[in-house]
Amino acid sequence: MGRRFLRERERDPYYRGAQRAGLRSRAAFKLVFLLERFPLLRAGDRVLDLGAAPGGWSIVARDAVGPRGRVVAVDPRPIEPIPGVTVVRGRVGDPSLAARLAASDTEPFDVVLSDMSPRISGAYATDHARSVDLVRAAFGLARDVLAPGGSFVAKVFAGDLLDDLEAEIENSFDRVRRTKPPASREPSSELYLVGLRFHAKVGRSAPVGP
């Protein structure tokens, strides 16, 4: 990391706030904003957190659902243990992931969260397309594990593929909204798609690919 990056990070109020609150990353404040704006999580809910490392979103979700709820964090990278959170090593888009989740947990999830980002290439069109592919993979999994009436949240980079992606997701929810949390850095093109009240039939009999 360059010295300039480190200086900017230390001045970042969201970074400092995350450090003080033990939230592991500034991204946790993005979920805090989403929970304040949308009726996403209730006490006792079951939450699937995709691309969870280092665990900031899982901590916020765990605190929101309380001891009667359940949070499952999925990432191909290791995640330091989080009390009250089940960690699953896996990659979204792997056809075996839905089957593994179903085998270990017979109840569907009330909320599926995805803060996944692609490996940044520096070519905007490429990065946008990769982020759309990640959302499609997360949504493919969500359709297999999400309970009727549930919610879906996914990060995506803005671009010319966004309208079609949103239309695909809208077919399975009563409504879909776009939003950009204040904790997202100003130059960033990232935003979040929020799908509310999932109404497609839930099928957990077969794994879902990307």
SSE diagram, text form:
Layout: H1 3-11, H2 13-21, H3 28-37, E1 46-50, H4 56-65, E2 70-75, E3 85-89, H5 96-104, E4 109-114, H6 124-145, E5 146-157, H7 162-170, E6 173-179, E7 190-198
Parallel strand pairs: 1-2, 1-4, 2-3, 4-5
Antiparallel strand pairs: 5-7, 6-7
Helix pairs in contact: 3-4
Question: Briefly, what is this?
Answer:
The protein has 7 helices and 7 strands; from the N terminus they run αααβαββαβαβαββ.
Give the uncertain stretches in residue-range form.
1-24, 202-210
H/I helix tally: 7
CATH architecture identity: 3-Layer(aba) Sandwich
End-to-end separation in angstroms reads 33 Å
Q: Order of SSEs, N→C? A: HHHEHEEHEHEHEE
Q: Main sheet?
A: 7 strands, mixed
Question: What is the percent of helical residues?
Answer: 25-40%
State Rg: 16 Å
- Let me know the number of strands: 7
Inertia-based shape: globular
Q: Strand order within the widest sheet? A: 3-2-1-4-5-7-6
Q: Given the helix and strand composition, which structural class is it?
A: alpha/beta
* CATH homologous superfamily classification: Vaccinia Virus protein VP39
CATH topology: Rossmann fold
Structure notes:
With 210 residues, the chain is α/β, with parallel strands linked by helices. It has one domain (24-198): Vaccinia Virus protein VP39 (Rossmann fold), CATH 3.40.50.150. It has helices at 3-11, 13-21, 28-37, 56-65, 96-104, 124-145, 162-170, and strands at 46-50, 70-75, 85-89, 109-114, 146-157, 173-179, 190-198. It has a 7-stranded mixed sheet with strand order 3-2-1-4-5-7-6, with helices on both faces. Helix 3 packs parallel to helix 4 (56-65).
